[in-house]
Amino acid sequence: MRLKQKTRLPCNRVFCFRGNETIINAVPFKKVFVLLLVVFSACSAPAQNTIVVPTATLAPATSVLDTAATISPTASRPTRAPSPTFAKPAIQTPAWFDDVVLYEIFPRSFYDADGDGIGDLQGIAQKLDYLQDLGVGAIWLTPIFASPSYHGYDVTDYYKINPEFGVEQDLIDLVNEAHQRDIKIILDFVAGHSSDQHPFFKDAYGNPNSKYAAWYRWLDDAHTKYEHFGSATNMPKWNQDNPEVRAYLLENAKYWMNTAGIDGYRLDYALGVSHDFWKAFRQEIKSINADALLLGEVWDSGLKIKPYYDNQFDATFDFPVYYDVMGSHDRAGASALLAQRGLNAFESTLRAETRLYPPGAQSVRFLNNHDTLRVMSQVKTACQLSAVECERHIIERAKLAATLLLTLPATPMLYYGEEIGMSGDKSDGDKTVREPMDWYASESGAGMTTWYRPATGFNQPDDGISVAEQQNQTASLFERYRALLALRAQHDALRHGEFVTIPFVGIPAAELSALAAYARVTDAETILVVLNAGDQAITATLDLSALGSDTITLHDLLAANTLAPAPAQNFSLRLAPRAAYVFQLEP
Ligand SMILES: [Ca+2]
Ligand SMILES: [Ca+2]
Q: How far is the CA of 335 from the centre of ligand 2 (A)?
């Protein structure tokens, strides 16, 4: 089979696009999200084609764990025209981060090694095999330093591991054991504020003569009123204009790089710290390890995120696409995954980001984190069917969400427990999205954390939501996640491929809003992803002519079956409700 010559549009390491130029140019980057201070998180259709083709009926996607290995290598293909050059200079970012799946751990809730009910660093080390088996390549730990709070975003000693989590050697051991499995570890760094229990703040409070008086930002002469993070008076802001403060924070960040060999930092509430500080931060960290990752939390629009790629961060979290998909971080029922508004809004946002960000800029794709509703709580809908049927629908939609997460450009991130469908809706504060990782059907056993077990909690025994109940169950959400991570690892196109929008043909707008289709394309292979978030099965016709062949044969990577060849320009697919398909084009 010979491919047609393909044209390439601008692309950087993270995002590359081809497709309908009209769509590209008509959609400005429109979304500006107001940063809501979350207290503790410091935190078209082408012309109707009259060719009639047989409809390929898809078998339900069931298991994939054993399918990817049977895929035959793709034949070599003609080389395409080279990419155009760019006026924007590329930034140097750690290549390893393009190839991993990141996993966020809230240490207190993950795994308890010493039986006190509180998750700890030794516990995380004991579950590295679990994470490796899942396919995780990098771990972000939320704050592990001394702090009076359960979440740790208010630090009292940047040089001391929270004794509840362990000691310095535990972190060194964890990093070493992770590295033996080729897993990276990044720590959360809170540069914007300290705890009001930090000894420097205690010394400076109400004491203008304190050695540390100029370390914080006072609002009165008596030094009793001060700037703080959001409404959290227990989080006084550092005065980073003071060179001593800057040196103190930078020395500390370097300390953990040198002492524990960590692989970089997630920079908390980056908006609260000056660009100048972050530039100095980058210089210091990269001087120790040029391959270290600097991942900034810039909870804002693409326009606000852009400046942080100027000699500051390698990567940022993709909040714009997050909001396209999930709708709201603190309100259920707003997600495009519920088919109530256009599912494919993320496509124009991805294009806008490509235009905005410099080549090489990295992003993190995510559906939830410790500050947001859990994705499982976002995909629940009012359901009039039997409890069993309703549950099945929710899990199908969670699998759809997972497929989107793991097939789009950028580095995907899972929030612990997402892979088993833990719920959490912030209805009773942030703790509700930080419940103990549910390892066992009974919710008790080695390593289960117990620090937060309210009667109203989402975790319940024998509800099907636990690692033990889902591991090796081919239809489970956990096994779908594991399969998708494996696909991403095995298929370079899913990690590095161009993003190509695939148009639907002749579908009414009302039905179109529940659908999305896109391809990930390298010279060696093409992966096609088709999503139906609606509650109705639909026969959809796609125009696959952008993929370069006149006739297309698709191999369903999740269901392990091959569809009959059909004309590219008018490819008909029967899509089940709440279903996601990942196809490889047969060469
Ligand atoms: Ca413990
Ligand atoms: Ca459970």
A: 24
Taking alpha carbons only, the member of 238, 193, 364 closest to residue 295 is: 364
Centre of ligand 1 to C-alpha 457, Å, is: 21
Find how far residue 238's CA is from the centre of its chain. Answer: 29
Phi, psi of 302 (to 5 degrees): -60, -35
User: What CA–CA distance (Å, rounded) separates 456 from 435?
Assistant: 11
Instruction: Give residue 211's pLDDT band: very low, low, confident or very high (50, 70, 90).
Output: very high
Q: What's the 452 CA to ligand 1 centre distance in angstroms?
A: 13
Distances (CA, A) of 112 to 123, 124, 169: 5, 8, 17
**Class of the CATH-defined domain 17-90+494-585:** mainly beta
Pairing between β-strand 157-161 and β-strand 145-146 as defined by DSSP bridges: antiparallel
Query: Do 97-191+242-490 and 193-239 come out as alike in CATH topology?
Result: no
Ligand index nearest the alpha carbon of residue 118 = 1
Which residues does residue 530 pair with via DSSP β-bridges, in sequence order? 517, 581
Question: What are the helix and strand counts (H, E) for the chain?
Answer: 16, 25
Ligand 1: distance of its center to the CA of 166 in Å?
8
pLDDT digits (tens, 9 = 90+) for 158-179: 999 999 999 999 999 999 999 9
Which CATH number among 3.30.565.10, 3.90.400.10, 3.20.20.70, 3.30.70.3460 corresponds to the domain 193-239?
3.90.400.10
- Which ligand gives the minimal distance to the CA of 376? 2
Count other Cβ atoms within 10 Å, centred on residue 461: 13
- Taking the CA of residue 485 as centre, how many other CA atoms within 13 Å lie in the half-sphere pointing to its CB? 22
Query: CA distances (Å), 581 to each of 277, 527, 552, in order?
Result: 45, 10, 16
Return the active site residues.
268, 297
Q: Which CATH architecture has domain 97-191+242-490?
A: Alpha-Beta Barrel (3.20)
User: Do residues 487 and 582 lie in contact, with contact meaning Cβ atoms separated by under 8 Å?
Assistant: yes
Rounded Cα gap, residues 107 and 372, in angstroms: 17
If you measure from the C-alpha of residue 433 to the centroid of ligand 1, how many angstroms do you get, rounded to a whole number? 20
Domain residue ranges in the chain: 17-90+494-585, 97-191+242-490, 193-239
**Least distant ligand from the CA of 450:** 1
| Average pLDDT of the segment spanning 149-159 | 98
Cα pseudo-dihedral 169, 170, 174, 176, rounded to 10? 20
Of 235 and 55, more confident: 235
Average pLDDT over residues 419-439: 95
* Conformation bin of residue 146: beta by default, left when phi > 0, alpha when psi is -120 to 50: beta
The CA distance from 534 to 538, in Å, is: 9
